[in-house]
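Title: Comparing notes on inverse folding

I've been comparing how different people in this forum approach sequence design from structure. To keep things fair, I'm posting one structure and asking everyone to reply with a full sequence. Here's the target:
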């Protein structure tokens, strides 16, 4: 750095305001609280939407399970398990083919989204202890 500039900056002494650090920490805490509120409401809206969406998709899954005959194949396991021991491979393939995969994937996906958003919404309610420590 230029020696003239060094001398000017060394002679120029600025005293910070008395409560500058506390004011900065207060602004950080306020912004973090606002961010947490926005995230909380966003995750809550996602959870409510998933909760509403799970009803028609589960009804569709149950309807498709009934149409595919999955219930009849599954009841065969309970009622006559001894007769199935010789043909268990063919029965397992038939049982797997009768599962409506798309509806089942939709229901499981919605359940995962519901769990994820509920967990994140709950995490947003935790106290801001890490930032308050510095204020």
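Reply #1:
Here's my take.
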């Amino acid at each position: 750095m230029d020696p003239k500039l060094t001398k000017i900056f060394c002679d120029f002494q600025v005293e910070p305001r008395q409560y500058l650090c506390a004011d900065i920490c207060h602004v950080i805490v306020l912004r973090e609280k606002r961010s947490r509120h926005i995230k909380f409401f966003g995750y809550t809206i996602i959870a409510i939407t998933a909760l509403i969406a799970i009803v028609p998709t589960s009804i569709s899954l149950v309807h498709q399970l009934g149409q595919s005959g999955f219930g009849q194949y599954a009841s065969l396991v309970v009622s006559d398990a001894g007769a199935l021991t010789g043909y268990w491979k063919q029965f397992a393939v038939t049982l797997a083919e009768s599962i409506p995969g798309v509806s089942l994937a939709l229901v499981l996906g919605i359940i995962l989204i519901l769990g994820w958003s509920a967990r994140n919404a709950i995490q947003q309610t935790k106290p801001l202890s890490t930032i308050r420590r510095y204020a």
